[in-house]
Fold each of these.
Amino acid sequence: MLSNDLSRGEIAQKYKIVRPLENQTKNRHNSIRGVDCSMIIFPPNADILSPIDDHIFKTLLTHPDAKPVLIDVLSSSINRNITDATVRNNELPVSDDNEKGERFDVNCIIDHKDQADVEMHGSHIQELDDAHTSFINKCMYYLTDLHSSQPSKGKKYHELARTYQITFCNYTIYSQRKDYITRASMRAEDGAQITDQINFILIELSKLDEILKKPVDKLTPLEMWSIFFKFAPDVKRRDIVNKVIAEKEELRMASTLLMEISQDEHQRAKYRSRRMFETDKFHNEATIEERSMLKVARIMKADNEPYEKIMRYTGLIIAEIEKL
């Protein structure tokens, strides 16, 4: 349910969520399933599901009645006016939830030629260093794989499509950079662009503090989308999210669809299942790591290694080592 205090009908009346009469003409660019998007805001206590969930993110971008949402997200991210986008992998397979890269990315053709892959990265992936090498290498792998997978037979090289990998990430990758967006292509040492054929775009949703201080009418479209994706479920940020929604028709469409998804008990059950899966996975991985450190500490203690050395190698404190 959207609220513990209001019924669905009361919410519709209070917040002017109206359904046109059947004999009225429905405009697919400002309504979803007959709901007028022009008046949508999130109620103060509404329990809204998070667009950072990759399943919900893909639903928002691939819903058949919300094509302008995808076009606007692409235009804002690429920083180019896009007039059309066609999704190539619209179906959500029912296989393993862990197959994230194949399951929840949005692969599309833009303006009948170029291609883009859009994904939401909400959960940390395992890293062996603080430079997020695995994350960056994964993005580069899928970017170049998508670019090289386009049919080349019968094409001249100058006819090959430009490829964009657009990744929204809920945690910080480039801690040394203050900007929340990184746009990268192949460049020479002096910064001159060599080619715009392959393009990497990273939006770090963990870096929005300064953006939140800006007046809403001064926000860029990408800043608006970033605030919406990051803070839609946050009741403490509900005021700024609603102001952002009111500024842009495509955001009103996305908020309409997100409210509809949030009302769907089946969708909520699936959302809870995914959160439980991720929590259990994190717990199991952390437990395995802890057991490994305890095993190393026992061996080092049996070899009479100094406690300081055991602490340095395992992260354990003296009290924990003494119990071994």
Note: Confidence is low (pLDDT under 50) at residues 1-28, 93-102.
Amino acid sequence: MTHTHDTIALAQHIAQYHAQLQIGQPLSAADATLLADAHLPQAQAAALQGARMLGFIEADAQCVAQAWQHQTQRLGQFDPLHWPDQAVDFQMPAWPRQNAFAPSPRALGLYAVLPNAQWVARMAQAGVPTLQLRFKSDKPAEVAAEVRAAVKAVEATGALLFINDHWQHAIDAGAYGVHLGQEDLDSADLTAIRKAGLRLGLSTHGYAEMMRADALSPSYIAMGAVFPTTLKNMPTAPQGLGRLGAYAKLMQGHSLVAIGGIDEARFADVRHTGMGSIAVVRALVAPADPEGTARDLMRRLAG
């Protein structure tokens, strides 16, 4: 199957109309066109090239292009103005699902990512509804003790506690849930986590990782980094508000958490994308009055 200049024109139209999804420097139509694209249906080829022009990494561009082709088949026509946003076009199964992880609240509220059990106790007492212990140590005994202390710290507070990475210690201590990054999925025993009744949260950084996360039916999906952050070396560029809104619309069947570089000045903009929760790290642990800051952020999130 070959294409004419019409395909490039459609790709350019996609890139221009959906400019709010642009990340980085725009890619030219010539650079976004590969020889292999000629074997694709025109709608899929145009969508693929348009997504590349908008700066989507190849795996994400392929996801968008395939969904656009499915959308075209479902609607009976190719519409370059309608960015794919329906789960059926991404071939995501409907809810409820068998073997899904235990659900978490659809709106997890303010989500504090904290370095140790002392901070977990402090923010639980301040009324922060969702907490994550991100404790870094290569000594299993230290990790086990910190996880147990964090689980004990939230007792009788109503706070929901997720443990970052250390899923076995989370199971042993009876934590509410576990949070895993994409790099952890190949090594974590997801069956053991599910059987233990723990909730599962997963990090994602774009369409391809969202599809991988969705296939596991987790308790929530985290999306980011929304803005630049120096706390972690991120595998992808900041996603921005435009993409975050597109992700939220597509993944509305899930509990969603926005994370990455979000300070109080950006809360309203992030909330308006449709995300049910905003995760913060530095915005809580850096201020002189963390409890007061937490109360202010919870008010901002409540609208």
Note: The chain has two domains: 5-90, 109-302.
Amino acid sequence: MTETELLVQDAISKICGIETAQLHPDAILTELGVDSLAAAEILVEVEIRLGRDLPAHLLRRLEDAQTIRAIAAGLDSGFGSSPSRGPA
């Protein structure tokens, strides 16, 4: 997994209480019980872990992402490269 995928995986694990071993990068998040409220909380957790706010256009794109890999790819493309981690 990429650094960004691991960041997203950790955020999902924290918010949803799902063990990271169960979070395959291509698993459909709704099938794991991630609803829209949890998805919003996950994006806030990602912002905290990055140490910066995500741009509104990127947030809108990420809302439609259904997998860890898709969220990570959206983050990477939204920032032009892997987003650097802020203080955790």
Note: The radius of gyration is 12 Å.
